Task: inverse folding
């Protein structure tokens, strides 16, 4: 996406937010990146995109660009945490990070944990010495959506994002049992006291509900890239776009490079791809 | 008929008072959890189900176990169980009440529980579990109450009630089948992803439920002059033995599939439960003693029953001993090992062991006390009615 285009989308998004955006949003519905636009225009866009075969957002993480740059991983994670008011839960007594109760949307983990089904016996030094980014895969056949008893998690028909309704979730954690990627976190206690830098543009959550990565659907609606993509924009390490559109940048990279998904054998059809 | 539960000996009242104290303790701990959040439990991000759900699973089995009394009597016209079917039905009512309490204790937003009904979701097994559990509870209340009322009036039960009796038979099977489906349909939980899960649940249920009923029968014989009859007890022991052996056979099949195929995902949970799972130089084995205790108690229970059959003796002590061994064995197997063993390896292959907190344990104790409180009152009513009819 070139710069002019991006800045236009930003402006368009802001006007849409200001409530004068009906014509703009109608125009934007032809852009896959914005098909998830806010309520009413969003439904219209959904109908239109449905006729075209539908948008399915996906992500491609080019790990080659992260190797040797753990600071880049941290930058990505920090950007997500900040935008989404993700609490940093600490043990009140020791002040250390609380592994049991933690909330994470995108995080880093060794290769063997990110890709448990791949062999890690004779890993190269690069693979063994670097952490990998993991997040919700926004699967095409998501097990979490299948098991939710209240439809609190669902696939957005207009763009394939697996979304959450924090107000409907009863906190049964069945989705956490079903997810083969450990992508979901539960609020074991009130998360608000643990939010260091509050972002008023995104809701905080209450205790007793599940949450996870949303592919930044709220930012897409404003014409912005997902926060993680934007954090390492200059390197182009993360590509985001429509997997159903062969012209999209992500599809062109997928056609060119050899990529893998996390645990594809579970039949979930993940939308996040990796170059390792 | 409820007034019959309000007359009793000091021992009866003392027992109820003890249960009330435990119930109050459990309620206080639950209020703490309600106000603070589920962080008061030992569960966490990587091990998100614990004691509550595992006991829920076990108790669904106890509720379904009543089938082993109802089915022979109503389908095979096995008259000897005539006095016992009501005990199976009343135990089912109490066990399902406990199940529902365990589910409520386990969800993070209990005040939103009605969302299950407001937004019914047929693709979720939890939705169907709610449907069959509430259905089975209702059926047992109808059948138990109507048949007992008829007995009290010394008339035959109305014909329409038999419709509900016969419907309750497949429902008993369905509650445990659907509960197994909560587990066996999840793609990445290897230990649960097994077609034998539902049959195994049913087998252990048909041993655990009748075992508990036999223990209650002996207690009531001693304190309430209720005699189940030698033949009924003997037949129930046969049923418990077969069910326990079938359950053990199914567990052995899990071992064969895991260790012979040598597929790591199938082995991990069994390794952790029975031998200790090594990972990064650390051995995780906090459930090993419980699982071997379960194995030993299972075979000890079977040995006691076999002795009774071979020597043709039947004493109350032996009955209680055999039943208690079987019941506790299956409680450890299903009420502890099945759920926690399936969760020990997280999807990212990190290993997290679970230790319940005191608060969580006391909430569970409170729920068990509530169940025993209910079953005591219901059995008191049933036995009093029988006595009045005999006089």
Result:
């Amino acid at each position: 996406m070139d710069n002019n285009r991006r800045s236009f989308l930003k402006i368009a998004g802001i006007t849409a937010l200001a409530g004068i955006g009906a014509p703009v949003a109608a125009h934007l519905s032809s852009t896959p990146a914005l098909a998830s636009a806010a309520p009413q225009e969003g439904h219209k866009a959904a109908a239109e995109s449905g006729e075209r075969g539908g948008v399915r957002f996906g992500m491609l993480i080019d790990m080659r660009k992260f190797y040797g740059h753990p600071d880049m991983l941290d930058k990505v994670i920090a950007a997500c945490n900040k935008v989404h008011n993700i609490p940093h839960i600490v043990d009140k007594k020791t002040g250390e990070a609380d592994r049991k109760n933690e909330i994470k949307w995108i995080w880093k983990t060794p290769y063997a944990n990110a890709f448990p089904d791949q062999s890690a016996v004779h890993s190269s030094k690069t693979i063994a010495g670097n952490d990998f980014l993991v997040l919700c895969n926004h699967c095409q056949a998501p097990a979490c959506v299948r098991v939710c008893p209240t439809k609190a998690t669902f696939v957005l028909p207009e763009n394939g994002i697996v979304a959450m309704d924090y107000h409907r979730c009863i906190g049964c954690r069945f989705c956490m049992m079903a997810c083969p990627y450990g992508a979901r976190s539960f609020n074991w206690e009130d998360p608000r006291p643990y939010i260091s830098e509050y972002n008023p543009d995104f809701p905080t959550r209450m205790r007793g509900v599940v949450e996870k990565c949303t592919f930044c659907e709220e930012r897409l609606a404003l014409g912005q890239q997902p926060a993680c993509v934007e954090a390492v924009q200059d390197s182009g390490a993360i590509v985001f776009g429509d997997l159903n559109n062969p012209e999209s940048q992500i599809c062109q990279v997928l056609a060119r490079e050899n990529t893998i998904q996390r645990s594809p054998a579970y039949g979930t059809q993940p939308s996040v791809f990796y170059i390792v | 008929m409820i007034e019959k539960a309000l007359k009793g000996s000091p021992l009866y009242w003392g027992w109820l008072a003890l249960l009330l104290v435990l119930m109050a303790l459990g309620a206080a701990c639950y209020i703490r959890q309600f106000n603070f959040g589920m962080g008061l439990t030992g569960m966490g991000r990587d091990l998100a189900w614990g004691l509550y759900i595992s006991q829920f699973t076990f108790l669904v089995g106890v509720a379904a176990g009543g089938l082993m009394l109802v089915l022979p009597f109503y389908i095979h016209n096995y008259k000897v169980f005539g006095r016992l079917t009501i005990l199976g039905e009343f135990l089912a009512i109490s066990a399902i009440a406990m199940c529902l309490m365990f589910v409520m204790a386990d969800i993070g937003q209990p005040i939103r529980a009605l969302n299950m009904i407001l937004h019914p979701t047929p693709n979720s097994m939890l939705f169907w579990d709610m449907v069959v559990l509430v259905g089975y509870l209702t059926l047992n209340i109808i059948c138990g109450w109507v048949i007992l009322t008829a007995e009290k009036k010394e008339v035959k039960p109305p014909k329409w009630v038999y419709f509900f009796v016969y419907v309750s038979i497949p429902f008993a099977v369905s509650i445990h089948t659907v509960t197994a489906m909560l587990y066996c349909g999840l793609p990445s939980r290897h230990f649960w992803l097994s077609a034998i899960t539902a049959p195994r649940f049913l087998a252990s249920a048909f041993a655990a439920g009748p075992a508990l009923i036999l223990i209650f029968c002996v207690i009531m014989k001693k304190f309430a002059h209720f005699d189940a009859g030698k033949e009924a007890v003997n037949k129930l022991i046969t049923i418990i033995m077969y069910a326990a052996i079938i359950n053990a056979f199914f567990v052995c099949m899990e071992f064969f599939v895991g260790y012979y195929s040598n597929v790591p995902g199938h082995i991990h949970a069994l390794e952790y439960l029975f031998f200790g799972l090594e990972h990064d130089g650390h051995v995780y084995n906090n459930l090993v003693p419980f699982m071997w205790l379960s194995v030993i108690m299972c075979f000890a229970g079977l040995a006691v029953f076999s002795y009774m059959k071979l020597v043709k003796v039947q004493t109350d002590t032996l009955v209680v001993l055999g039943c208690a061994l079987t019941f506790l064995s299956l409680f450890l197997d299903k009420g502890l090992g099945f759920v926690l063993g399936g969760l020990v390896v997280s999807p990212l292959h990190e290993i997290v062991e679970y230790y319940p907190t005191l608060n969580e344990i006391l909430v569970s104790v409170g729920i068990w006390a509530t169940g025993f409180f209910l079953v005591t009152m219901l059995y008191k009513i049933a036995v009093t009615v029988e006595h009045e009819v005999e006089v």
User: Anything to note?
Assistant: Chain B touches chain A through 41 residues (CB under 8 Å). The mean pLDDT of chain B is 94.
